[in-house]
């Protein structure tokens, strides 16, 4: 009986404490006790209040950036008080007036730029190939023969043809076809882009890293694949109904293993489009590479034909000239899952950990998104490792064994769930910056890059702390207007975030709401999140 009385008193104390907390909440909000309806209205406005706070923070940051930028102009400093006190309507009228003058100046600037670009094209001729040749020759003068072969891949005629079509259309049909070939050859990793800002140039968009890359930024193998795709697309644009065969003559001359592998993979992908490919060579080492490549790819219908003569190498050349040479494809086989569990297979293929602050959803390994180990195996065999590759490959009608429509739909829903989580998690948590960010901002010159990068490293990549350090003159001579420019870039790219971070409970509630509206099975979503957070 005594125990029951004690328990009653304890519960009464809890009730009193709860009532005191409730009264404190009403008091802090300046509400009458038990005014529940008004409290609910305020609760409904909470999300809008937070959004308004974020907008205010962004507006204040933008104001600071703009003010810092204006301080670069002497005329602003001289008339700062008058300009800042100018009525809004007067400021708008002045802005409209100067905008018109600025538009006319911009139009003149564009016309000058276009004229200069045409002069450059006229003077330079085949600028794309000349640039490639100059770059490669400066790296290794012994690769002269290789450069001749590479130059033959593109040719001036391709650039001239695309230039003519680009005058009529934003994206010529030949470029669209080259894009499709390039996507297929690279197994969904890259998309072809045409840069016409100054003069005609090809570039690649990395579907995993989500960034453009110029030709000189691509690996040698990928550059070869791009140029092969462009050359073939041009040839096919000239064809009518018949697909004549492709004839390649000793493209491996002075090529290393990576280049040779890239050429073979590109030609193999072309052959799978229904076109015959003839590769002519009198070199035993090239023959050996093709034999090993075809042995490793039984799905490709290939055959070696030996033309007998006084100088032609026969089958014996395969063993006599290839000793010690191993194609990287053979040394990097993908392990089959056999009877391994999903977790064990993840260890066998060494799935990388996803960085919540640095990585994007396109960089997520496909292992996280599906437990179908056979499907994962077939993707990896095609060098499709990340979600960005797979998603783009399938949207372009690529075919992979085991790619069931329902499973792909679930993978897309999980990718969207992860994207939503990252958006919530990164709110108020700025991603760390590094030297490359400073270089990309355009605000840090070569004079200051080493010192500013060192200061950033000392601050653990904290971009906000770096701005404070720069304003405190911890890097002598760094100009105030450049600090403003750097701040604007860091804000735009998410390296500074003044919003309030969401705690775990808030994120969980948001995710539950998202899952309920996405038609993704809650248990499957839970397993995906456990897999995502648990993989170390």
Silhouette:
globular
The helix-and-strand class reads mainly alpha
Strand/helix succession: HHHHHHHHEEEHEHEHHHHHHHHHHHHH
Largest sheet entry: 3 strands, antiparallel
Arrangement of strands in the largest sheet: 1-2-3
Q: Could you report the average pLDDT, rounded to the nearest whole number?
A: 75
Which percent band covers the strand fraction? under 5%
**Alpha-carbon distance between the termini?**
54 Å
Low-confidence stretches: 122-126, 145-157, 163-170, 310-331
CATH architecture of the domain at 127-280: 3-Layer(aba) Sandwich
Query: What name is given to the CATH topology of the domain at 127-280?
Result: Rossmann fold
Enumerate how many helices there are, as a single number: 23
What is the tally of beta strands?
5
Percent helix among the residues?
A: 55-70%
- Tell me, what is the CATH class of the domain at 127-280? Alpha Beta
Radius of gyration: 31 Å
Descriptive account of the structure:
The protein is mainly alpha-helical and 536 residues long. Among the domains are: 37 residues; 154 residues, 3-Layer(aba) Sandwich (Rossmann fold), CATH 3.40.50; 118 residues, no CATH class; 58 residues. 61% of the residues lie in helices and 4% in strands. The chain has 23 helices and five strands. A three-stranded antiparallel beta sheet has the order 1-2-3. The protein has a two-stranded parallel sheet with strand order 4-5. β1 and β2 form a beta hairpin. The two termini are 54 Å apart. About 9% of the residues have low confidence.
């Amino acid at each position: 009986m005594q125990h029951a009385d004690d328990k009653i008193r304890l519960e009464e104390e809890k009730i009193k404490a709860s009532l005191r907390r409730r009264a404190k909440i009403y008091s802090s909000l300046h509400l009458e006790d038990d005014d529940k309806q008004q409290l609910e209205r305020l609760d409904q406005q909470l999300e809008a209040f937070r959004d308004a706070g974020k907008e205010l923070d962004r507006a204040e940051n933008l104001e600071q950036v703009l003010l810092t930028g204006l301080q670069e102009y002497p005329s602003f400093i001289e008339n700062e008080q008058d300009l800042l006190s100018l009525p809004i309507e007067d400021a708008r009228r002045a802005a409209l007036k100067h905008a018109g003058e600025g538009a006319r100046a911009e139009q003149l600037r564009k016309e000058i730029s276009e004229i200069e670009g045409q002069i450059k094209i006229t003077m330079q001729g085949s600028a794309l190939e000349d640039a490639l040749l100059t770059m490669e020759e400066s790296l290794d003068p012994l690769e002269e023969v290789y450069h001749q072969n590479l130059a033959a891949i593109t040719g001036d005629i391709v650039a001239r043809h695309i230039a003519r079509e680009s005058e009529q259309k934003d994206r010529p049909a030949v470029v669209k076809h080259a894009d499709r070939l390039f996507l297929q050859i690279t197994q969904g990793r890259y998309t072809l882009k045409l840069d016409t800002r100054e003069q005609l140039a090809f570039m690649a968009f990395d579907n995993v890293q989500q960034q453009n890359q110029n030709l000189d930024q691509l690996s040698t193998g990928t550059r070869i694949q791009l140029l092969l795709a462009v050359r073939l697309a041009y040839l096919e644009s000239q064809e009518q109904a018949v697909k004549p065969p492709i004839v390649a003559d000793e493209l491996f001359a002075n090529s290393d293993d990576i280049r040779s592998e890239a050429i073979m993979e590109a030609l193999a992908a072309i052959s799978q489009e229904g076109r015959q490919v003839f590769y002519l060579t009198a070199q035993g080492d090239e023959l050996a590479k093709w034999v090993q490549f075809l042995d490793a790819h039984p799905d490709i219908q290939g055959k070696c034909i030996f033309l007998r003569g006084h100088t032609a190498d026969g089958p014996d050349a395969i063993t006599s000239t290839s000793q010690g040479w191993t194609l990287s494809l053979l040394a990097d086989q993908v392990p089959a899952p056999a009877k391994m569990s999903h977790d064990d297979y993840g260890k066998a293929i060494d799935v990388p950990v996803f960085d919540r602050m640095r990585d994007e959803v396109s960089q997520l390994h496909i292992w996280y998104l599906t437990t179908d180990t056979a499907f994962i195996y077939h993707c990896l065999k095609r060098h499709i490792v990340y979600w960005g590759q797979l998603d783009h490959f399938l949207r372009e009608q690529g075919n992979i064994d085991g790619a069931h429509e329902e499973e792909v739909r679930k993978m897309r829903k999980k990718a969207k769930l992860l994207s939503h989580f990252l958006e919530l998690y990164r709110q108020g948590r700025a991603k760390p910056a590094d030297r490359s960010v400073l270089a990309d901002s355009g605000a840090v010159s070569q004079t200051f890059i080493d010192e500013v990068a060192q200061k950033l490293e000392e601050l653990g990549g904290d971009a906000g702390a770096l701005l404070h350090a720069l304003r405190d003159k911890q890097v002598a001579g760094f100009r105030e207007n450049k600090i403003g420019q750097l701040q604007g870039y860091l804000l735009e790219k998410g390296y500074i975030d003044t919003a309030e971070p969401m705690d775990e409970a808030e994120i969980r509630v948001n995710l539950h709401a998202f899952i309920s509206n996405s038609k993704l099975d809650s248990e499957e979503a839970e397993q995906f999140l456990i897999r995502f957070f648990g993989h170390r």
